């Protein structure tokens, strides 16, 4: 728990933290993503950028299918056409145990970014001023990983007439009901890749090429089918199997096929167990429980006394597709990976939370304090 001398210092600290989570994206690096241009082209049709109306578009699909990568590519290609742009990963708000006022601070920083103001106070008496200022701005807003746990930014999203002509708001979610509740009827569904595309995606991860080398075609096709063509699974498993003997491929394929339920968890378990260096596993769990969306510099500084060679470990995890490090130094871990890592820690002591190495659930933390354990 932080200590602040006054509320102004606290507000500044929180605003800076929120600001660091906004615009966590990058301009390049999508060339190898299979079908990316096809996705972007179809989204451009829905966005209808030549229209002067303010338009909201949804991107919908299951977890692990590549919605965020598509959104980043879209953002990269369209940002120059707008006066103000912002890419917000909503998951850090939903999944962090922030105090009740964090939502207001998030809205404050969001408005500051959109309006180009260093600090802007949110309040009912300011809404008319906000509306007038927004009408002068052609903005591109992408809200990633939106769910229905907390209805943040309701006013901004619902009042599309506030934004300047030609503005576009893109909402990314697994929940089509959420999109419909906002009246968003222009929805792009990200479906699973075809068998051919899935094989190409898998081969790029495993072999750094579009097709399997001699002797690997049959087994590669079987593995891709066993994963269910889910991009996250293809990438994670491809990174794990690349460079290994066919006998190991057969063994992993058998394990996946024998796992009737929790196939994605099985894939993540296989990949996690493949980390031969114990320190890699330690850093993986640190990111999953504490440091997702923080910077390499910040994590390295906090763990400087841990003797873990943090920079090398982060590079190793990135090379194995456990995490992604953006061009501006942020660490991002897919929430399926994050949830899996947190489940590993929870299973260290299911009924005695105080014995776990990390606590991330607010109820568990409360129990530990109340029971003095």
Would you kindly provide a written description of the structure presented here, covering whatever features stand out?
With 373 residues, this protein is of the alpha/beta class. It has 18 helices and seven strands. The strands form two sheets. The chain has a five-stranded parallel sheet with strand order 2-3-4-1-5, sandwiched between helices. Strand 3, helix 7 and strand 4 form a beta-alpha-beta unit. The longest helix has 15 residues, at 7-21. This is AAA+ ATPase domain-containing protein.
Structural class: alpha/beta
Oligomer: single chain
Strand order of the largest sheet: 2-3-4-1-5
Helix content: 40-55%
Summed up, the helix count is 18
Q: Termini separation (Å)? A: 18 Å
- Summarize the biggest pleated sheet: 5 strands, parallel
> How much β-strand is present in the residues?
5-15%
Which residues sit in consecutive blocks of at least 5 with pLDDT less than 50?
Answer: 27-31, 95-100
Estimated radius of gyration? 22 Å
Q: Quick one: overall form?
A: globular
The total beta strand count reads 7
What is the overall pLDDT average?
80
Order of helices and strands: HHEHEHHHEHEHEHHHHHHHHEEHH
Keywords: Leucine-rich repeat, NAD, Repeat
InterPro entries: AAA+_ATPase, Apaf_helical, Disease_R_plants, NB-ARC, P-loop_NTPase, WH_DNA-bd_sf, WHD_ROQ1-like
Organism: Brassica cretica (Mustard)
Protein name: AAA+ ATPase domain-containing protein
């Amino acid at each position: 728990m932080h200590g602040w001398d006054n509320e102004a210092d606290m507000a500044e600290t929180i605003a800076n933290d929120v600001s660091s989570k906004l615009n966590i994206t990058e301009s390049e690096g999508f060339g190898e993503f299979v079908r990316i241009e096809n996705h972007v082209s179809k989204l451009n049709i829905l966005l209808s950028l030549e229209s002067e109306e303010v338009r909201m578009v949804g991107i919908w699909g299951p977890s692990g299918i590549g919605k965020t990568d598509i959104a980043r590519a879209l953002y990269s290609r369209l940002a120059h056409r707008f006066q103000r742009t912002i890419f917000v990963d909503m998951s850090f708000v939903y999944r962090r145990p922030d105090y009740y006022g964090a939502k207001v601070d998030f809205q404050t920083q969001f408005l500051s970014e959109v309006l180009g103001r260093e600090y802007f106070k949110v309040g009912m008496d300011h809404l008319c001023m906000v509306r007038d200022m927004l009408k002068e701005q052609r903005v591109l807003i992408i809200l990633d990983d939106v769910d229905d746990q907390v209805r943040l930014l309701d006013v901004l999203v619902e009042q599309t007439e506030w934004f300047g002509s030609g503005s576009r708001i893109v909402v990314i979610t697994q929940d089509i009901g959420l999109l419909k509740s906002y009246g968003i009827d222009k929805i792009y569904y990200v479906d699973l890749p075809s068998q051919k595309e899935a094989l190409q995606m898998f081969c790029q991860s495993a072999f750094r090429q579009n097709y399997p080398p001699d002797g690997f075609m049959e087994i590669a096709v079987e593995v891709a089918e066993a994963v269910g063509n889910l991009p996250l699974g293809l990438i994670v498993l491809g990174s794990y199997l690349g460079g290994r003997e066919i006998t190991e491929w057969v063994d992993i394929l058998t394990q996946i096929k024998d796992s009737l339920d929790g196939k994605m968890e099985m894939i993540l378990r296989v990949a996690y167990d493949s980390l031969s260096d114990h320190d890699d596993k330690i850093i993986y769990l640190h990111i999953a429980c504490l440091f997702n969306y923080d910077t390499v510099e910040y994590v390295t500084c906090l763990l400087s006394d841990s003797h873990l060679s943090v920079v090398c470990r982060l590079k190793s995890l990135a090379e194995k597709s456990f995490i992604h490090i953006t061009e501006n130094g942020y660490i991002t871990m897919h929430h399926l990976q994050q949830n899996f890592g947190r489940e590993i820690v929870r299973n260290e002591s299911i009924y005695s939370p105080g014995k776990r190495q990390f606590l991330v659930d607010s109820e568990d933390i409360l129990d530990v304090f109340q029971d003095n354990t």
